[in-house]
UniProtKB/TrEMBL annotation:
Similarity comment: family membership: Belongs to the KHG/KDPG aldolase family.
Lineage of the species this protein comes from: Bacteria, Pseudomonadati, Pseudomonadota, Gammaproteobacteria, Pseudomonadales
Pathway as given in its UniProt record: Carbohydrate acid metabolism; 2-dehydro-3-deoxy-D-gluconate degradation; D-glyceraldehyde 3-phosphate and pyruvate from 2-dehydro-3-deoxy-D-gluconate: step 2/2
Name of the protein in its database record: 2-dehydro-3-deoxy-phosphogluconate aldolase
Complex formation: Homotrimer.
InterPro entries (alphabetical): Aldlse_KDPG_KHG, Aldolase_TIM, KDPG/KHG_AS_1, KDPG/KHG_AS_2
Gene source species: Halopseudomonas pachastrellae
Pfam families (alphabetical): Aldolase
Leader sequence residues: none
EC number per UniProt: 4.1.2.14
Gene3D superfamilies tied to this protein: Aldolase class I (3.20.20.70)
Molecular function terms, GO-annotated: 2-dehydro-3-deoxy-phosphogluconate aldolase activity
Keywords: Carbohydrate metabolism, Lyase, Schiff base
Length: 214
């Protein structure tokens, strides 16, 4: 089993080539492969399927089987049983909006890395105490945005963040310019209305623009 420092290194390696984490809510299973291909064509290498819809687990398993070159994370994981389910479906890592003791322990003891969600120094320190050094900052813009990430760089010198929630094409560059930003996440690269309309080329264009900003 991997230690937390090994899981930290694995997370860093997933974003070494592309610091983007498009967040996908899957409403129709038929969208999964064309959507993943549209993002790949734009240069995306890692994406997050949320459990916000009941198709999340099936979508993760489908991508794992059909698009093995992509790295698939699972998002909106809220408890240890969901952690176990996405791990079994083949997720490469787990992202959560917040952190509970149960989830932090599941991420420590599980087979795949957890990127726990935090919005305050105190939440960060609960994970830090166990050995976590990589965190999702959620909701990034509301919690303090780039200013908060800069402030965290003072006391938490070896921590890095994946801001998510309110990241757009307009503020993406400011986040990526921070040395303690490991990646940025969000739905702006594959907006629900473009997925619903199967506008795959528009999604490729949004992905290309975001990759260019990184
Ligand atoms: O579902 C989760 O796991 C979350 O924690 C929330 C998402 O990360 C944000 O809602 C994405 O925010 P937008 O990019 O502004 O749409």
């Amino acid at each position: 089993m991997m230690s937390l420092p090994e899981k930290t290194r694995l997370l860093d390696s997933l974003f070494a080539d592309c610091r983007l984490l498009p967040l996908l809510n899957i409403e129709r299973l038929a969208d999964v492969l064309p959507l993943a291909d549209a993002l790949s064509a734009g240069g995306v290498t890692t994406l997050e399927i949320t459990l916000r819809t009941p198709l999340g687990i099936d979508a993760i398993a489908l991508l794992r089987a059909e698009r093995p070159a992509l790295t698939i994370g699972a998002g909106t994981v809220l408890d240890a049983s969901q952690f176990a389910a996405v791990q079994a479906a083949g997720a490469a890592f787990v992202v959560t909006p917040g952190c509970t003791e149960e989830l932090l322990e599941a991420g420590r003891d599980g087979l795949i890395p957890l990127l726990p969600g935090i919005a305050t120094a105190s939440e960060l320190m609960q994970g830090y105490r166990l050995g976590y050094r990589r965190f999702k900052l959620f909701p990034a813009e509301i919690a303090g945005g780039v200013g908060l990430i800069k402030a965290f760089a003072g006391p938490f010198r070896d921590a890095a963040f994946c801001p998510t929630g309110g990241v757009t094409a307009d503020n993406l560059g400011a986040y990526l310019a921070q040395p303690n930003v490991m990646a940025v996440g969000g739905s702006w690269i594959a907006p629900p209305q473009l997925i619903a309309a199967e506008r795959w080329q528009d999604i490729t264009a949004l992905a290309k623009a975001a990759v260019a900003a990184g």
